[in-house]
Amino acid sequence: MKEAIERLRREGPQRISAAATPDELEALRVALLGRKGELTLMLRGLKDVPADERPALGAELNRLKQELTALLDGKGQELSAGRDEGAVAGVDLTLPAPRGAGLGTAHPLVSILESICDIFYGMGFSRAEGPEVELDYYNFTALNFPDDHPARDIQDTFYISDAVCLRTQTSPMQVRIMEQQQPPLAYVIPGRVYRNENADASHSSEFYQIEGLVVDRDISMADLKSTVDTFVRLFFGAEEPTRFRPHFFPFTEPSVEVDMQCVACRGKGCGVCGQTGWLEIMGAGMVHPNVFRAAGYPDDAYTGFAFGMGIDRIAMLKYGIDDIRLLYENDLRFLQQFRGVQ
Asked: What is the pTM of this model?
Protein backbone atom coordinates (compact mmCIF):
# COMPACT_ATOMS: atom_id res chain seq x y z
CA MET A 1 0.00 0.00 0.00
CA LYS A 2 2.81 2.45 0.88
CA GLU A 3 4.56 1.73 -2.42
CA ALA A 4 1.33 2.32 -4.37
CA ILE A 5 0.74 5.65 -2.60
CA GLU A 6 4.28 6.83 -3.37
CA ARG A 7 3.98 5.73 -6.99
CA LEU A 8 0.71 7.64 -7.44
CA ARG A 9 2.24 10.69 -5.74
CA ARG A 10 5.06 10.65 -8.31
CA GLU A 11 3.08 9.78 -11.42
CA GLY A 12 -0.17 11.65 -10.68
CA PRO A 13 1.21 15.18 -11.18
CA GLN A 14 2.97 14.11 -14.39
CA ARG A 15 -0.22 12.63 -15.86
CA ILE A 16 -2.22 15.75 -14.89
CA SER A 17 0.38 18.05 -16.44
CA ALA A 18 0.27 16.05 -19.69
CA ALA A 19 -3.50 16.51 -20.15
CA ALA A 20 -3.94 18.66 -23.25
CA THR A 21 -7.70 19.26 -23.34
CA PRO A 22 -10.54 19.65 -20.84
CA ASP A 23 -11.93 16.30 -22.00
CA GLU A 24 -8.62 14.55 -21.33
CA LEU A 25 -8.41 16.18 -17.93
CA GLU A 26 -11.92 15.07 -17.02
CA ALA A 27 -11.15 11.52 -18.06
CA LEU A 28 -8.03 11.58 -15.84
CA ARG A 29 -10.06 12.93 -12.92
CA VAL A 30 -12.41 9.96 -13.23
CA ALA A 31 -9.46 7.55 -13.52
CA LEU A 32 -7.88 8.92 -10.34
CA LEU A 33 -10.76 10.02 -8.14
CA GLY A 34 -13.89 8.48 -9.67
CA ARG A 35 -15.95 5.71 -8.04
CA LYS A 36 -13.58 3.12 -9.51
CA GLY A 37 -10.52 5.40 -9.63
CA GLU A 38 -7.07 4.40 -8.45
CA LEU A 39 -7.08 6.45 -5.28
CA THR A 40 -10.67 5.48 -4.47
CA LEU A 41 -9.78 1.79 -4.70
CA MET A 42 -6.86 2.38 -2.34
CA LEU A 43 -9.19 3.98 0.20
CA ARG A 44 -11.53 1.02 -0.05
CA GLY A 45 -8.55 -1.33 0.40
CA LEU A 46 -7.78 0.10 3.83
CA LYS A 47 -10.10 -2.53 5.31
CA ASP A 48 -7.50 -5.17 4.40
CA VAL A 49 -4.62 -3.28 6.05
CA PRO A 50 -3.61 -4.22 9.61
CA ALA A 51 -5.51 -2.12 12.14
CA ASP A 52 -2.38 -0.49 13.57
CA GLU A 53 -1.35 0.79 10.09
CA ARG A 54 -4.77 2.12 8.95
CA PRO A 55 -4.64 5.58 10.62
CA ALA A 56 -1.31 6.56 9.08
CA LEU A 57 -2.14 5.16 5.63
CA GLY A 58 -5.60 6.76 5.71
CA ALA A 59 -4.07 10.14 6.50
CA GLU A 60 -1.58 9.70 3.66
CA LEU A 61 -4.32 8.83 1.18
CA ASN A 62 -6.42 11.87 2.21
CA ARG A 63 -3.43 14.18 1.80
CA LEU A 64 -2.75 12.67 -1.62
CA LYS A 65 -6.39 13.15 -2.61
CA GLN A 66 -6.22 16.83 -1.63
CA GLU A 67 -2.96 17.26 -3.59
CA LEU A 68 -4.36 15.63 -6.73
CA THR A 69 -7.65 17.55 -6.47
CA ALA A 70 -5.76 20.85 -6.24
CA LEU A 71 -3.60 19.92 -9.26
CA LEU A 72 -6.66 18.91 -11.29
CA ASP A 73 -8.47 22.17 -10.46
CA GLY A 74 -5.41 24.23 -11.34
CA LYS A 75 -4.96 22.44 -14.65
CA GLY A 76 -8.66 22.94 -15.40
CA GLN A 77 -8.34 26.71 -14.94
CA GLU A 78 -5.24 26.74 -17.14
CA LEU A 79 -6.98 24.89 -19.97
CA SER A 80 -10.07 27.09 -19.68
CA ALA A 81 -8.00 30.26 -19.91
CA GLY A 82 -6.19 28.93 -22.94
CA ARG A 83 -9.48 28.08 -24.63
CA ASP A 84 -10.82 31.63 -24.03
CA GLU A 85 -7.64 33.16 -25.42
CA GLY A 86 -7.90 30.97 -28.48
CA ALA A 87 -11.49 32.05 -29.05
CA VAL A 88 -10.44 35.67 -29.40
CA ALA A 89 -7.11 35.08 -31.10
CA GLY A 90 -6.32 37.87 -33.47
CA VAL A 91 -8.82 40.26 -31.89
CA ASP A 92 -7.67 43.42 -30.13
CA LEU A 93 -9.88 43.47 -27.04
CA THR A 94 -8.96 47.10 -26.35
CA LEU A 95 -10.71 48.33 -29.50
CA PRO A 96 -14.16 49.93 -29.05
CA ALA A 97 -17.19 48.00 -30.25
CA PRO A 98 -18.58 48.88 -33.69
CA ARG A 99 -20.82 51.92 -33.38
CA GLY A 100 -24.52 51.22 -33.66
CA ALA A 101 -24.16 47.44 -33.30
CA GLY A 102 -26.92 46.23 -31.03
CA LEU A 103 -27.49 49.62 -29.45
CA GLY A 104 -30.81 50.29 -27.80
CA THR A 105 -32.92 53.35 -28.38
CA ALA A 106 -35.54 55.32 -26.50
CA HIS A 107 -39.09 54.09 -26.94
CA PRO A 108 -41.04 56.46 -29.23
CA LEU A 109 -43.43 57.30 -26.38
CA VAL A 110 -40.51 58.28 -24.16
CA SER A 111 -39.03 60.42 -26.93
CA ILE A 112 -42.35 62.18 -27.50
CA LEU A 113 -42.95 62.70 -23.78
CA GLU A 114 -39.55 64.27 -23.23
CA SER A 115 -39.83 66.43 -26.36
CA ILE A 116 -43.20 67.78 -25.20
CA CYS A 117 -41.85 68.51 -21.72
CA ASP A 118 -38.81 70.27 -23.16
CA ILE A 119 -41.07 72.66 -25.07
CA PHE A 120 -43.03 73.52 -21.95
CA TYR A 121 -39.86 73.89 -19.89
CA GLY A 122 -38.93 76.60 -22.37
CA MET A 123 -42.20 78.36 -21.60
CA GLY A 124 -41.50 78.37 -17.86
CA PHE A 125 -43.37 75.22 -16.80
CA SER A 126 -42.16 72.85 -14.09
CA ARG A 127 -42.74 69.09 -14.11
CA ALA A 128 -44.66 67.00 -11.58
CA GLU A 129 -45.75 63.38 -11.38
CA GLY A 130 -48.44 61.67 -9.34
CA PRO A 131 -49.77 58.25 -8.29
CA GLU A 132 -51.28 55.89 -10.82
CA VAL A 133 -53.36 54.28 -8.08
CA GLU A 134 -55.53 57.21 -7.09
CA LEU A 135 -58.25 58.08 -4.60
CA ASP A 136 -61.72 58.40 -6.10
CA TYR A 137 -61.85 61.81 -4.41
CA TYR A 138 -58.98 63.24 -6.48
CA ASN A 139 -59.89 61.39 -9.67
CA PHE A 140 -63.53 62.50 -9.65
CA THR A 141 -64.99 64.40 -6.69
CA ALA A 142 -62.40 67.17 -6.42
CA LEU A 143 -62.61 67.62 -10.20
CA ASN A 144 -66.32 68.46 -10.02
CA PHE A 145 -67.61 65.11 -11.33
CA PRO A 146 -71.14 64.50 -10.00
CA ASP A 147 -71.81 61.22 -8.23
CA ASP A 148 -73.86 59.92 -11.15
CA HIS A 149 -71.39 60.87 -13.89
CA PRO A 150 -70.97 58.01 -16.43
CA ALA A 151 -67.16 58.12 -16.09
CA ARG A 152 -67.52 56.76 -12.56
CA ASP A 153 -69.16 53.57 -13.84
CA ILE A 154 -67.18 50.37 -13.56
CA GLN A 155 -67.56 50.06 -17.35
CA ASP A 156 -65.15 52.99 -17.70
CA THR A 157 -62.98 52.88 -14.56
CA PHE A 158 -60.86 50.14 -12.96
CA TYR A 159 -61.79 50.18 -9.27
CA ILE A 160 -59.60 48.63 -6.60
CA SER A 161 -62.13 49.47 -3.89
CA ASP A 162 -65.02 51.89 -3.51
CA ALA A 163 -62.57 54.66 -2.65
CA VAL A 164 -59.54 53.71 -4.78
CA CYS A 165 -59.14 53.30 -8.53
CA LEU A 166 -56.56 53.36 -11.30
CA ARG A 167 -56.52 56.97 -12.42
CA THR A 168 -58.42 57.63 -15.64
CA GLN A 169 -56.59 60.89 -16.35
CA THR A 170 -53.67 62.98 -15.14
CA SER A 171 -56.07 65.75 -14.02
CA PRO A 172 -56.11 64.66 -10.32
CA MET A 173 -52.68 66.28 -10.05
CA GLN A 174 -54.31 69.68 -10.60
CA VAL A 175 -55.84 69.55 -7.11
CA ARG A 176 -52.84 67.83 -5.52
CA ILE A 177 -50.49 70.56 -6.78
CA MET A 178 -52.79 73.43 -5.75
CA GLU A 179 -53.20 71.91 -2.28
CA GLN A 180 -49.44 72.16 -1.79
CA GLN A 181 -48.57 75.40 -3.58
CA GLN A 182 -49.93 78.89 -3.92
CA PRO A 183 -50.02 80.72 -7.28
CA PRO A 184 -48.39 81.66 -9.52
CA LEU A 185 -47.75 78.16 -10.81
CA ALA A 186 -47.30 76.42 -14.15
CA TYR A 187 -46.86 72.65 -14.39
CA VAL A 188 -46.86 69.83 -16.90
CA ILE A 189 -47.74 66.40 -15.51
CA PRO A 190 -47.01 63.37 -17.73
CA GLY A 191 -48.08 59.89 -16.75
CA ARG A 192 -49.82 56.63 -17.49
CA VAL A 193 -53.60 56.37 -17.17
CA TYR A 194 -56.12 53.53 -17.40
CA ARG A 195 -59.62 53.12 -18.80
CA ASN A 196 -61.80 50.07 -19.13
CA GLU A 197 -61.88 49.98 -22.93
CA ASN A 198 -61.50 47.29 -25.54
CA ALA A 199 -58.25 47.61 -27.45
CA ASP A 200 -58.40 48.51 -31.12
CA ALA A 201 -56.38 50.60 -33.56
CA SER A 202 -57.20 53.86 -31.76
CA HIS A 203 -58.03 52.77 -28.19
CA SER A 204 -56.15 51.09 -25.37
CA SER A 205 -56.94 50.31 -21.74
CA GLU A 206 -53.55 51.74 -20.81
CA PHE A 207 -52.07 54.86 -22.37
CA TYR A 208 -50.16 58.06 -21.62
CA GLN A 209 -51.38 61.60 -21.06
CA ILE A 210 -49.76 64.89 -20.25
CA GLU A 211 -51.59 67.50 -18.21
CA GLY A 212 -50.91 71.22 -18.18
CA LEU A 213 -51.93 73.64 -15.42
CA VAL A 214 -51.37 77.40 -15.13
CA VAL A 215 -52.82 79.45 -12.26
CA ASP A 216 -52.29 83.14 -11.46
CA ARG A 217 -54.25 86.36 -11.35
CA ASP A 218 -55.90 87.46 -14.58
CA ILE A 219 -55.14 84.33 -16.62
CA SER A 220 -57.46 84.25 -19.64
CA MET A 221 -58.49 82.05 -22.55
CA ALA A 222 -56.16 84.13 -24.71
CA ASP A 223 -53.23 82.85 -22.60
CA LEU A 224 -54.41 79.29 -23.18
CA LYS A 225 -54.66 79.77 -26.95
CA SER A 226 -51.25 81.42 -27.12
CA THR A 227 -49.68 78.53 -25.14
CA VAL A 228 -51.31 75.86 -27.31
CA ASP A 229 -50.38 77.61 -30.56
CA THR A 230 -46.77 77.92 -29.41
CA PHE A 231 -46.61 74.23 -28.54
CA VAL A 232 -48.06 73.12 -31.89
CA ARG A 233 -45.70 75.39 -33.82
CA LEU A 234 -42.60 74.21 -31.92
CA PHE A 235 -43.48 70.52 -31.82
CA PHE A 236 -44.69 70.00 -35.36
CA GLY A 237 -42.21 72.46 -36.80
CA ALA A 238 -44.54 74.63 -38.87
CA GLU A 239 -47.21 77.28 -38.62
CA GLU A 240 -49.91 74.66 -38.19
CA PRO A 241 -53.35 76.29 -37.82
CA THR A 242 -55.37 75.40 -34.73
CA ARG A 243 -58.99 75.85 -33.82
CA PHE A 244 -60.93 75.77 -30.56
CA ARG A 245 -64.35 74.11 -30.46
CA PRO A 246 -66.79 74.43 -27.52
CA HIS A 247 -66.98 71.28 -25.42
CA PHE A 248 -67.77 70.15 -21.88
CA PHE A 249 -65.47 68.90 -19.14
CA PRO A 250 -66.60 68.91 -15.49
CA PHE A 251 -63.36 70.50 -14.25
CA THR A 252 -63.12 73.42 -16.73
CA GLU A 253 -65.52 76.23 -17.64
CA PRO A 254 -65.57 77.24 -20.40
CA SER A 255 -64.23 74.06 -22.00
CA VAL A 256 -62.87 73.48 -25.48
CA GLU A 257 -61.44 70.79 -27.68
CA VAL A 258 -58.38 71.84 -29.66
CA ASP A 259 -57.84 70.74 -33.25
CA MET A 260 -54.87 71.25 -35.52
CA GLN A 261 -54.81 71.11 -39.27
CA CYS A 262 -54.30 67.54 -40.51
CA VAL A 263 -50.60 66.92 -41.01
CA ALA A 264 -51.33 64.31 -43.69
CA CYS A 265 -53.47 66.32 -46.09
CA ARG A 266 -52.83 69.93 -44.98
CA GLY A 267 -56.52 70.57 -44.46
CA LYS A 268 -57.76 69.15 -47.76
CA GLY A 269 -59.47 66.11 -46.19
CA CYS A 270 -58.25 62.51 -46.11
CA GLY A 271 -58.78 59.18 -44.40
CA VAL A 272 -56.58 60.17 -41.46
CA CYS A 273 -58.77 63.13 -40.50
CA GLY A 274 -62.08 61.62 -41.65
CA GLN A 275 -62.22 64.08 -44.57
CA THR A 276 -62.55 67.04 -42.17
CA GLY A 277 -59.07 68.46 -42.62
CA TRP A 278 -58.67 68.66 -38.81
CA LEU A 279 -57.28 66.42 -36.05
CA GLU A 280 -58.23 66.67 -32.38
CA ILE A 281 -55.12 66.94 -30.20
CA MET A 282 -56.29 67.95 -26.73
CA GLY A 283 -59.05 69.01 -24.38
CA ALA A 284 -58.65 72.27 -22.46
CA GLY A 285 -60.40 75.11 -20.70
CA MET A 286 -60.41 77.51 -17.80
CA VAL A 287 -60.15 75.87 -14.38
CA HIS A 288 -63.61 75.49 -12.85
CA PRO A 289 -64.25 77.51 -9.64
CA ASN A 290 -65.31 74.30 -7.87
CA VAL A 291 -61.86 72.83 -8.51
CA PHE A 292 -60.27 75.91 -6.93
CA ARG A 293 -62.57 75.48 -3.92
CA ALA A 294 -61.62 71.79 -3.59
CA ALA A 295 -57.95 72.84 -3.52
CA GLY A 296 -58.64 75.44 -0.83
CA TYR A 297 -58.11 78.54 -2.95
CA PRO A 298 -60.21 81.63 -2.10
CA ASP A 299 -63.25 82.25 -4.30
CA ASP A 300 -62.58 84.60 -7.23
CA ALA A 301 -58.95 85.17 -6.19
CA TYR A 302 -57.31 83.38 -9.13
CA THR A 303 -57.96 82.17 -12.64
CA GLY A 304 -56.16 79.52 -14.59
CA PHE A 305 -56.27 77.14 -17.50
CA ALA A 306 -55.70 73.42 -17.87
CA PHE A 307 -55.19 71.14 -20.84
CA GLY A 308 -54.67 67.44 -21.39
CA MET A 309 -53.51 65.47 -24.41
CA GLY A 310 -52.71 61.86 -25.18
CA ILE A 311 -49.01 61.30 -25.73
CA ASP A 312 -49.85 58.19 -27.73
CA ARG A 313 -52.00 60.21 -30.12
CA ILE A 314 -49.31 62.85 -30.52
CA ALA A 315 -46.76 60.09 -31.27
CA MET A 316 -49.08 58.62 -33.89
CA LEU A 317 -49.46 62.02 -35.55
CA LYS A 318 -45.76 62.77 -35.37
CA TYR A 319 -44.56 59.45 -36.80
CA GLY A 320 -47.52 58.48 -39.00
CA ILE A 321 -48.44 55.42 -36.87
CA ASP A 322 -51.89 54.07 -37.69
CA ASP A 323 -52.39 51.58 -34.83
CA ILE A 324 -51.88 52.45 -31.15
CA ARG A 325 -51.26 48.78 -30.32
CA LEU A 326 -47.90 48.97 -32.09
CA LEU A 327 -46.67 51.23 -29.29
CA TYR A 328 -47.24 48.54 -26.65
CA GLU A 329 -46.38 45.24 -28.32
CA ASN A 330 -42.57 45.56 -27.91
CA ASP A 331 -41.96 44.36 -31.47
CA LEU A 332 -38.28 45.07 -32.15
CA ARG A 333 -38.93 45.38 -35.88
CA PHE A 334 -41.21 48.33 -35.09
CA LEU A 335 -39.10 49.89 -32.33
CA GLN A 336 -35.83 49.76 -34.27
CA GLN A 337 -37.30 52.19 -36.80
CA PHE A 338 -36.96 54.92 -34.17
CA ARG A 339 -33.24 54.49 -33.50
CA GLY A 340 -31.77 57.96 -33.54
CA VAL A 341 -35.17 59.62 -34.08
CA GLN A 342 -36.02 62.55 -31.80
From this structure: 0.66
Q: What is the dihedral of CA 244, 280, 249, 197, to 10 degrees?
A: 170
**If we measure between CA atoms, which residue out of 104, 185, 106, 174 comes closest to residue 140?**
174
CB 174 within 8 A of CB 113: no
- Among candidates 204, 208, 203, 224, which has minimal Cα distance to 283? 224
Give per-residue pLDDT as tens, 73-98. 888 888 776 655 555 556 666 777 66
Look at residues 123, 96, 71, 111 and name the one whose alpha carbon lies nearest to residue 233.
123
Rounded CA-CA distance 248/291 in Å is: 15
Share of the chain above pLDDT 90, in %: 37
Confidence of residue 177 (pLDDT cuts 50, 70, 90): very high
Q: What is the CA radius of gyration of the chain?
A: 36
Per the DSSP assignment, residues forming a β-bridge with 305 are 214, 286
Span 6-47, pLDDT tens digits: 888 888 888 888 888 888 888 888 888 887 888 888 887 877
The single-letter code of the amino acid at 32 is: L
Task: Reply yes or no: is the peptide bond before residue 184 cis, omega within 30 of 0.
Answer: yes
Q: How far is it, in rounded angstroms, from Cα 143 to Cα 161?
A: 19
- CA distances 100 to 94, 332, 335, 340, Å, are 18, 15, 15, 10
